[in-house]
Structure formats: structure tokens, C-alpha cells
Amino acid sequence: MAEIAPGSLGLGGANLGNLFAPMTDDEATALLGAAWDSGIRYFDTAPHYGLGLSERRLGRFLATRPRDEYVVSTKAGRLLEPSPATAGERDADLYDVPADVRRVWDFSADGVRRSLTESLERLGLDRVDVLFLHDPEVAGLDDALATGVPAAVALREEGLVDAVGVGSTSTEALVAAARAGGLDLLMVAGRFTLLEQPAAAELLPECRARGIGVVAAGVLNSGLLASPRPGDGARYEYQPVPADVLARARRLADVCDGYGVELPVAALRFPWREETVRSVVLGAGSAAELRETVRRARTPVPDALWAALAAQGMVAA
């Protein structure tokens, strides 16, 4: 099985799909090149990201790299169908792309298989290493898992993917997915971060008990923890940050400052304290931002900082 190397950094593909703002093809290639030159060999994408744009850009880049040197994950659950959108209409779901196709929820066996087939076409690959079911709770958790998990497992058993899992921001959905059985990985997005750790209560113990690896994504909480001092214009959950959440982020920054550690450094290092975490997936909007994020992610943090944060009840001891 092609595996995500333990302790590795990954690159998330949302920005490649023009998340919040447009990115040129040249800028996307430069971003991916910076990731490769930084040693990143795990790339995550999804049909959802820019209505297929992220997959197409990633595929064009990876066509220039040896196939046995990288790992790719994509996702299933949202099929892309022709859209009745009027000329010039843009996607209404965070991505600055033409709305020439629309997302249709489908976790059926046929839908999951079709999603993989169409993702491979956009990526220009004959296989991906990991297939995640994407946000099953939005489409109705019980039904989505009842059909989607066996469908994904069947694709793995046929050798069409090497590993399968579920990716979500919902700890309830991820716990249910872990208990469904048969999964290799869970992508935990924004729920095991320096800011908040709801995954620590039930989800991570389930993963330890079942031997499920964790891919930690969204560890900067939509950019809130991306700067040493979070500003009023920061985002949280892709929306303007609530006052109480901003205040907590600033308290974290104050504690980090006391130990000479930048808040984003601590945030990027935090997930590695959990033994089940296989990889931390980074987001970046430019090559320069990616290089700085990688530098921060590889900067050591003194144990005394974790102890101080635990003493204040901001992280688990």
C-alpha cells in the first residue's frame, strides 16, 4: 500500500481551486513547485475545490514528477454535474470559478465509483493512493456512511485505491465513521488544533484502538492562527471570526510570546503531540506563503510551552 509517510507534511489543494480569490495557472504551478522543493510529497485535493480546478492543476503538475515519488488523496461525495447557470455566473461556495458545473451529493456505490473515475480523468492519473468520503454529515450521516463506506472499501479491495477514509470537520461524523469499520485514515479538519481539541475526547481514542491513522488538516483554523497576532479581520470556519474565538486565539498568542514562540509555529507543531497523527496538511495561497509555513512547521517548540498551555487549560496535559 502506498502510504502517507508518518511525520510528513502535506499540501492541501483548496487554494489551487481559487478559494476566496483567483490564482493564475502560473501561480498554482509555482506553489506546487515550492511544495515539492520543500520536500512535500503528499498532496490532497477534491472535486469540491474549485469545481474540479484543483484536481486539474494538481494533475498537470504531477505529470512532470515520477509517479512512485508522491502520494495523492482525493475525495468522493460531491459529483460535478452540468449547471444551468447563466453566462458569467460564479460559484457561490467560496471558490472564485465559473459556475459551469454544480455539486450534487451522492454517496451511493455508483456515485462513489463514478466520483473516483472522474477525479482520475481530471488528475490525469490511473490511480490515487487515498480516497476520502467528503463531509458525509452534510448529506445525511447514517445513509452516507451506510452506502459510502462499503463502496470505498470495495474500491480498495479491487486495488483501485490503496487506502480509504472519511474527511470532515464534524467529530460526530468522524467517530461514526471510525466505528463503521474498514477505514484506514480519517482527515480531521479543524477539530484537533491548538485553538480547540474536540477530537481528543472520543475520536482520537477510537483511532488508537482501531489502528486508524489521522491526517490533521485545517490546523490554523481557516487562517486565524496563521499570524503571530490574530487581527480583527481574521477568518474562522471560513467566516469572520467571532469575538470570543478571537479572544482565545489572542490568549494563546500571549502564552506563546512568553516562550519566544510564534503562534503559527505552535499551531503547526501541536498536532504532532498525538501518536495517531500521520501527516499535517498545510494550506497556502502562494509559493512564498508555503515556504514560510513549512519553515514554521519544522521549527521546534520547547516542552515548557505545552506545559504552560496545559496549566492554563488551553490544551490537554
CATH superfamily: NADP-dependent oxidoreductase domain
* Shape designation: globular
CATH class (first level) name: Alpha Beta
- Please provide the count of β strands: 12
Terminal Cα separation, in Å? 35 Å
* Helical content band: 25-40%
The poorly predicted ranges are: none
Q: Rg to the nearest angstrom?
A: 19 Å
Oligomeric state: single chain
Beta strand %: 15-25%
Overall residue-averaged pLDDT value: 96
The domain count comes to 1
The name of the CATH topology is TIM Barrel
Q: In words, what does this structure look like?
A:
By secondary structure, the protein is α/β, with parallel strands linked by helices. Helix content is 37%, strand content 17%. The chain has one domain (8-311): NADP-dependent oxidoreductase domain (TIM Barrel, Alpha-Beta Barrel). The protein has helices spanning 25-37, 53-62, 109-123, 141-157, 171-180, 203-210, 243-258, 263-269, 287-297, 303-311, and strands at 8-12, 42-44, 71-76, 78-82, 101-105, 130-134, 163-168, 185-189, 213-217, 235-236, 239-240, 277-282. The strands form three sheets. Strands 1-2-3-6-7-8-9-12 form an eight-stranded parallel barrel, surrounded by five helices. A two-stranded antiparallel ribbon has the order 4-5. The protein has a two-stranded antiparallel ribbon with strand order 10-11. Helix 4 (141-157) links the parallel strand 6 (130-134) and strand 7 (163-168).
